[in-house]
Amino acid sequence: MIQAYQNFLRHSFSLTTVTKRGTYWLVTLINLAILAVFYIGFDLLFALLTAVQWLYFFDLVVAFFMIVWLILATLFVLVTLIPNITMSFRRYRDTGLPTSCFMIEPVLLLSFFWFCSENLNNGYASIWSIFATGLFLLADILVKLLPSAVEKNAK
């Protein structure tokens, strides 16, 4: 597990290495677990901040820790952004699909932004933004679940 994550970080800018299906999902699971820890920590700090809002000194201390926690979470996302993109590209390429299929990723990101903007503006999301985001997310997951072309040729 640690070896897979080390390889993930080591091959951050390499588009020529191979990313197998198991390695991709293991690294994705580790990244999601780390993001869940950041989310739970931020949620607990926010609950603590509302509990001590009348105690001015503790209020400042908790607010300081929230800012530090948010900076750490932002740094984690920024550090893993490029490695995640290259790993996704390698996974698309390793399935044997044409590299033009990788266009699902930016379209998914744009549809997610559309979904979020609809939700933030009106308080609800349009059915089309939900449908588009879900469709591209499903396509992305299904492509990444495909076996590698090397695995298919070996059988």
From TrEMBL:
InterPro entries: DUF805. The keyword Transmembrane helix applies. Keywords: Membrane, Transmembrane, Transmembrane helix. The chain crosses the membrane at residues 23-42, 54-83, 95-115, 127-146. It comes from the Bacteria. This is DUF805 domain-containing protein.
